[in-house]
Amino acid sequence: MALKNTKITFFDLASVYPDRRSLSLWCWTTRLVLNFKGLGYTTQFVEFPDIEPTLKPLGIPPTATKADGSPLFTVPAIIDATDPTKPPVCVSDSQEILLYLEKMYPDPLRPLIPSTTQNTGTYVPAPALYMLVKQFVLSNFMPYILPLVIEDMVPIIPPRAFEFATKAIVAAKGEGHDFLTAHFVGKEGSPEKEAYWKKLEAGFGIMALILESGEKIRADSSVSGGAGEFFMGHQVTFADFSLLAPMIMIRFASERGWERVSKWHGGRWERYWKALEEYIVVA
Ligand SMILES: N[C@@H](CCC(=O)N[C@@H](CS)C(=O)NCC(=O)O)C(=O)O
Predict the structure, then answer these.
(1) Main-chain phi, psi angles of 40, to 5 degrees
(2) What percent of the chain has pLDDT over 70?
(3) Among candidates 238, 263, 283, 282, which has minimal Cα distance to 22?
(4) Are residues 26 and 99 in the same domain?
(5) Less CB within 10 Å around the terminal CB: N or C of the chain?
(6) pTM of the full predicted structure?
(7) For residue 25, which atom of ligand 1 is closest to its CA?
(8) In a domain, 122, yes or no
């Protein structure tokens, strides 16, 4: 698909991979949206210690407040300089970026946030589905993913970023901690770590159940074209990217971790990855 003629700078979190691909769930949700929409963009990779010094002078707004009351600057962020007659638009926070891109560059036949009134021509986003998946992932996947992949992830984190994250942990927990030990739950195969894998598998199990029941309903009905493997059948929506992003995080941090996940639920997640693979591209 030809790229749209947009001039967007995307600020993403760098890893040590040669293509610098991110290990960040949030950054991946934004990249998936940019890729899905076929928008023209360039990536500026930043490491943790460089986020604030890079974003602040550009006028990109912070997304939260630190414990000491100062503003917290985060990636993903974008600057959209597509319209030469207007000042560039700076947007931070993956949720805000999604809403901005969906509004500025809508694709009525492939809305990422399907609207309840999409056939009437009035755009009224119906956020419930993707919010449900996003919140589910945050509560039921994220507490387990980092401890499960941390050992494999550490060598892929740029050393300065590791030191930066360690400093924040020492500030919060005191000396004797680093980014690895703070998230470490046990060696691969230990009962402690296996218990975490079981919890993550249970979370994926609920998502499998939901996707399966949708497939069954659609297969039983007269919907043309078969069941479809996404939350909305054949239509990819942001609900799918909310589920795909943690899978990307697992796979890019730990190939052996992904080996395990990809076999769960009859290989569903390997198939899901393949169905969405065209959007998992570092441009
Ligand atoms: N609510 C934000 C969260 C983004 C976020 O936490 N990003 C992390 C990287 S994964 C970050 O930039 N952290 C900077 C820091 O903690 O100093 C979003 O959805 O974009």
Answers:
(1) -75, 130
(2) 93
(3) 282
(4) yes
(5) N
(6) 0.94
(7) 10
(8) no
Residues 164 and 243 in one domain: yes
Q: Which of 11, 21, 24, 26 is the pocket-test mutation for ligand 1 (most atoms within 8 Å of CB)?
A: 26
The verdict on residue 25 lying in a domain is yes
55 in Cβ contact with 73 (< 8 Å): yes
How far apart, in whole angstroms, are the C-alpha atoms of residue 139 and residue 9? 30
pLDDT, greater one: 235 or 79: 79
| pLDDT for 68 | 87
The amino acid present at 275, given as its one-letter code, is: A
Residue 173, φ and ψ in degrees, nearest 5: -115, -10
Q: 174 — phi, psi (to 5°)?
A: 100, 170
Domain enclosing residue 144, as ranges = 136-279
Nearest CA to ligand 1 atom 18: 93
Closest ligand 1 atom number to CA of residue 93: 20
Same domain for 169 and 110: no
Residue 10 pLDDT grade (very low, low, confident, very high; cuts 50, 70, 90):
very high
Pocket of ligand 1 (CB under 6 A): 13, 24, 26, 48, 51, 63, 74-76, 93-95
Tokens 């962020």 belong to residue: 77
Q: Is residue 62 part of a domain?
A: yes
| Closest atom of ligand 1 relative to the 30 alpha carbon | 20
